[in-house]
Amino acid sequence: MQIKSLLGLAAMAQTAFGASLQQVQNFGNNPTRIQMYIYVPDRVATNPAIIVALHPCGGNGQQWFSGTRLPSFADQNGFILIYPSTPNQSNCWDVHSPASLTHNGGGDAGGIISMVNYTLDRYKGNKDKVYVMGFSSGGMMTNVMAGSYPDVFEAGAAYSGTAHACFAGAPGATPMSANQTCAQGLQKTPQEWGNFVRNSYPGYTGRRPRMMITHGNADTLVRPQCATEALKQWSNVLNVSLTRQVQGVPSSQFTQHIYGDGTQLQGFFGQGVGHAPSVNEQTLLKFFGLIA
């Protein structure tokens, strides 16, 4: 009887704290047949915030679920995590096609927006608190989503990524693609970069997503110049200029670059940091405004 009671308590505990990553099969328009995984904590906030978390090349949504501590913060704060997963292009995101780089143009970006809309509807999410983050190819796609869908995302955080439309015109955006000009630090003026964003949604005059750009100075796969170019892009789009740099934030290896008052745009460069996620969850969530 005692063993049965203990097993019963264990089963009850598993039910009470049973949140896990789940695949969603039918979430709406999905032109490139990407996959949707979602993490809904046991205690969801009223009108919860939503974070789209984008995996790197060669990865998938299930792996990226374990790549940061965001799920534990979701448990504590009640927000929902969406983990898109692409089986295409060696599991790299489509950051180069006109479809993804055009508002309502389709591509991987269109499928991700379907996931957001599904989640907003299914869980009564807060459409004013939708965010996107990602590493490497996911960081590149973060900038794409923020540029192509400024009406959807309140803020974005790109780690080891590239500017919006940096890969435009390239045959692909994998490390094996013939054209690696973008990843090696393609340079343009702030106005040119800003025009790429504005041209992705012609006529849009609404609010633009706040952005946080993080990169390692020792990254040889996606050069740190890529982060400099992304910061040039968003400083132009958001109309803010670099005001100061703070060493040792969020940790001793990093230098924080603050634009304006820091609420709209920040950059972080890690000395000696290579091609690594370097996600400081507290810094990320504070920038998003999801924790104090």
Automatic annotation (TrEMBL):
<keyword id="KW-0378">Hydrolase</keyword>
<keyword id="KW-0119">Carbohydrate metabolism</keyword>
<keyword id="KW-0624">Polysaccharide degradation</keyword>
<dbReference type="InterPro" id="IPR029058">
    <property type="entry name" value="AB_hydrolase_fold"/>
</dbReference>
<keyword id="KW-0325">Glycoprotein</keyword>
<feature type="signal peptide">
    <location>
        <begin position="1"/>
        <end position="18"/>
    </location>
</feature>
<dbReference type="Pfam" id="PF10503">
    <property type="entry name" value="Esterase_PHB"/>
</dbReference>
<dbReference type="GO" id="GO:0045493">
    <property type="term" value="P:xylan catabolic process"/>
</dbReference>
<dbReference type="GO" id="GO:0005576">
    <property type="term" value="C:extracellular region"/>
</dbReference>
<keyword id="KW-0732">Signal</keyword>
<comment type="similarity">
    <text>Belongs to the carbohydrate esterase 1 (CE1) family.</text>
</comment>
<keyword id="KW-0719">Serine esterase</keyword>
<protein>
    <recommendedName>
        <fullName>Carboxylic ester hydrolase</fullName>
        <ecNumber>3.1.1.-</ecNumber>
    </recommendedName>
</protein>
<dbReference type="GO" id="GO:0052689">
    <property type="term" value="F:carboxylic ester hydrolase activity"/>
</dbReference>
<keyword id="KW-0964">Secreted</keyword>
<comment type="function">
    <text>Esterase involved in the hydrolysis of xylan, a major structural heterogeneous polysaccharide found in plant biomass representing the second most abundant polysaccharide in the biosphere, after cellulose.</text>
</comment>
<dbReference type="InterPro" id="IPR010126">
    <property type="entry name" value="Esterase_phb"/>
</dbReference>
<dbReference type="InterPro" id="IPR050955">
    <property type="entry name" value="Plant_Biomass_Hydrol_Est"/>
</dbReference>
